[in-house]
Design goal:
With 234 residues, the protein is of the alpha/beta class. The protein folds into 2 domains: 87 residues, Beta Barrel (Elongation Factor Tu (Ef-tu), domain 3); 127 residues, Rossmann fold. It is built from 5 helices and 11 strands; from the N terminus they run βββββαββαβαβαβαβ.
Length: 234
């Protein structure tokens, strides 16, 4: 590991140099394996947060209480320590720079990670495909990549970012905390007749709800791609 960046009080990004890394698509993941001195081994899958950039791979890890892997990655692993990876893995939940369709990204909590890789890949490729991100989080303090998202929403033509806060809102926010619903998706997403590529990532319940909303709004289910994980705070 070559660098660490704190994203929130409980999440940090690990910057890894991986010799002979073959490159990856935005949306793919890796398996991280840890092996104890007694030979016990365990692994977890983590989405890649970065666009393809030589041998550099970035993973953003949310610490899970009582977890086997995330507390070690989040609290113990230090710069210079080795990490065992397998990947890249996956191809269905991936954005390709040659695509010309508008893109709708909807994230719940730490589900922003692979979607951030897509935003970064768009910029790296010089793509002008219009992107819209709807990001649901508990509070403003739980936003991953907050400064970068603010900068990209300001400077990257064709990228729009909207937030939904479920527990606490920023000062002056026009509505009380609430879960992401039809109104927000309809307001901040693309109309179905634009035929966007839709990527949803977050906890299982969140993903299923948002996918159902998109289909109810007329989106083609074949263009709605989902990636889900266990319970979280979205």
């Amino acid at each position: 590991m070559t660098a660490i960046r704190d994203e929130t009080a409980t999440a940090r990004t690990l910057v890894l140099t991986v010799p002979d890394w073959p490159g990856h698509l935005a949306g793919q993941h890796v398996d991280v394996r840890l092996t104890a001195e007694d030979g016990y081994s365990t692994q977890r899958s983590y989405s890649i947060a970065s666009a393809a950039d030589g041998e550099t791979v970035e993973l953003t890890v949310q610490q899970v209480p009582d977890g086997e892997v995330s507390p070690y990655l989040g609290e113990v692993l230090s710069i210079g320590d080795p990490v065992e990876l397998r990947g890249p893995v996956g191809g269905y939940f991936a954005w390709r720079p040659e695509s010309t369709a508008p893109v709708l990204l909807i994230a719940g909590g730490s589900g922003i990670v692979p979607l951030m890789a897509m935003i970064r890949a768009r910029r790296a490729a010089g793509s002008r495909v219009p992107f819209r991100l709807i990001y649901s989080v508990r509070t403003p303090h739980d936003i991953y990549y907050a400064d970068e998202l603010r900068m990209r929403a300001r400077d990257d033509a064709g990228l729009d970012v909207a937030y939904a806060f479920t527990r606490a809102v920023p000062d002056g926010w026009p509505s009380p905390p609430r879960r992401l619903g039809v109104a927000e998706v309809n307001t901040h997403g693309w109309p179905a007749d634009f035929e966007p590529e839709c990527f949803i990532c977050g906890p299982t319940g969140f993903v299923e709800t948002v996918a159902d909303i998109l289909v109810a709004l007329g989106h083609d289910p074949q263009r709605v791609r989902t990636e889900r994980f266990g319970p979280s705070g979205a």
